[in-house]
Design goal:
alpha+beta, 9 helices, 44% helix, 15% strand, globular, PiggyBac transposable element-derived protein 4-like 8, PGBD
Length: 211
Amino acid sequence: MIQKIVAHTYVLISALSTKFSKKMATIEETSIGETKTLIGILILSGCRRDNHLSSAEMWHQLAGTPLYQAAMSERRFCFLLRCLHFDDAATRSKRKKTDRLASIRNFWDEFVSKCHIHYIPEDALTIDEQLLAFHGRCLFWMYIPNKPAKYGIKLVMMCDVDTKYMLNAIPYLGKQSTTLQASKGLHQGHYFTKELTKPYFSSGRNITTDN
């Protein structure tokens, strides 16, 4: 999966690097190791609750975290985020006509499949929704005033009750999700529950959901 990210990101790096008058380390092509470092920085910033800060604040010599500075420069971090891609940008517009998640669909499906392939859950599972805070450009972001984040992307997830491990998840894509539900003659609750529990049909596990 990392190799695919590197390959798709390289395409945009190559395109943008031609706009710079001189060659710098900031615009060099990336590698598997550096991409893992970038993901590590993003995870760490979430754990430290730094993800609401600007990159200048994160890399500040006095107030910032030394680990960010040791991992890569601020300019390199911003450039990699600018170029980060998970799919073939050349065919994305065509795929978006039928799939709102086209820009990360293949990566998302592969990631979720690995979540339930490589983990054997206990006998009690639960399904619920979570609003992931997000303020970027997105066709299906939602505003839910009673949630802590209020603005974000809604995921319907199935997790192991004992360990909280995510086994399966489906993003709510607005009108597209509604169309899929109608095509199968199911309302929203039934649709998500049946889709999420498919890998565990007839396994003897207990599923708990709300309305």
